[in-house]
Write a structure and sequence with these properties.
Blueprint lengths: L4 E6 L5 H15 L5 E4 L8 H13 L4 E6 L5 H13 L4 E5 L16 H12 L4 E6 L10 H13 L4 E6 L3 H13 L6 E5 L5 H11 L5 H9 L4 H21 L4 E5 L5 H10 L6
Parallel strand pairs: 1-2, 1-8, 2-3, 3-4, 4-5, 5-6, 6-7, 7-8
Helix pairs in contact: 4-5, 9-10
Bound molecules: flavin-adenine dinucleotide (FAD).
Flavin-adenine dinucleotide binds next to strand 3, strand 4, helix 4, helix 5 and strand 6.
């Protein structure tokens, strides 16, 4: 038995090599018995077919697959066409997002925020889908104020979300405080922390800059000091992220959602240290 539920996030591969890499990662991670796996969606069209193909392949293997869906730059008709295909294929779990417009695209689309997408899905599909939304323990980078961001999060849950997955973070206090704050606003759904394993310093800093996640100075300085020593980065990253997960599990989180970047090794190593998959 796993200590608590885990889930993994993948992105739709763009090349035949990428398809094989994801299959290999999936085979390894499936042994850890995740509750579900999710597949990201590129706003603006880049990977949208890829999301459907990947989700259907995963579902065929008997694993619960949750496609991400973003509304930015899209119309109600286009969203309905995607949701109809998911429903026709028996997919019942969705991660509903606003998304970000790819550079060069200016048309915002018919729905402005994730809360409007959640309300749209509920209005059109009733309870068919289990809807996840995104939460930001360190606040969304475009939010006007922390307070408004918390209220906007509460709004999208109240529009009909069943649970939430957070942006990744390395400061456990930020997550715990976020949960406390939104509980005061009446949010009672599970809020699963998003976990980003650390394997590559430059990539981590780039992602974190883009999505507004803080890499604490002591972690950044350590990682930087390892230079090209990838083994040292991996070993340090494994310790740091495992300790974060241990703390979160002790605090009673409802699950852990791993951003795998389509590679199994780091997420698997953390899960094994936490005691997952030992009896499988
Ligand atoms: P929203 O909840 O709509 O919030 C966006 C911003 O608008 C916030 O600043 C919020 O405070 C503000 N806001 C919300 N409602 C209102 C309102 N009524 N009035 C004024 N301001 C408001 N991106 C992808 O492109 N594809 C993916 O597959 C993907 N998966 C993700 C999965 C997770 C778990 C997370 C955490 C993020 C993911 N993202 C993905 C990134 C996400 O799309 C971006 O962070 C995006 O900028 C915001 O999406 P959202 O759904 O959180 O938006």
């Amino acid at each position: 038995m796993n200590p608590i539920e885990i889930s993994f996030e993948f992105f739709p591969p763009k090349t035949p090599e990428g398809v094989e890499k994801l299959r290999a990662a999936r085979t390894q991670l499936t042994r850890l018995k995740p509750k579900f796996v999710s597949v990201t969606f590129g706003a603006g069209g880049s990977t949208q077919e890829g999301t459907l193909d990947t989700v259907l392949e995963i579902a065929k293997d008997g694993l619960e697959a949750a496609p991400h869906l973003s509304c930015v730059g899209s119309s109600r008709d286009a969203l309905r066409a995607i949701l109809d295909r998911y429903r026709a294929n028996g997919i019942r779990h969705i991660v509903a997002l606003r998304g970000d417009l790819p550079s060069g695209m200016v048309e915002m689309g018919e729905l402005r925020y994730a809360s409007e997408l959640v309300a749209f899905i509920r209005a059109e599909y009733g309870d068919w889908f289990w809807i996840e939304v995104a939460g930001y323990p360190e606040y969304h980078p475009q939010s006007r104020s922390p307070r408004q961001d918390l209220e906007n999060f509460a709004r999208k849950v109240k529009a009909g979300a069943n649970s939430a997955i957070t942006q990744y973070f390395y400061n456990g206090d930020a997550y715990l405080r976020f949960v406390d704050e939104v509980r005061k606003l009446g949010v009672d759904v599970p809020i699963v922390p998003g976990i980003m394993p650390i394997t590559n310093y430059a990539q981590l800093m780039r992602f974190s800059e883009m999505c507004g996640a803080e890499v604490p100075r002591w972690i950044a300085r350590q990682l930087e000091s390892f230079g090209d020593d990838r083994e040292a980065i991996r070993a340090f990253g494994l310790d740091i992220v495992t300790q974060l997960c241990e703390r979160l599990v002790k605090e009673g989180v409802p699950g852990l959602h791993f951003y795998t970047l389509n590679a199994a090794t780091a997420s698997k190593a953390i899960c094994e240290r936490l005691g997952y998959g030992i009896d499988q």
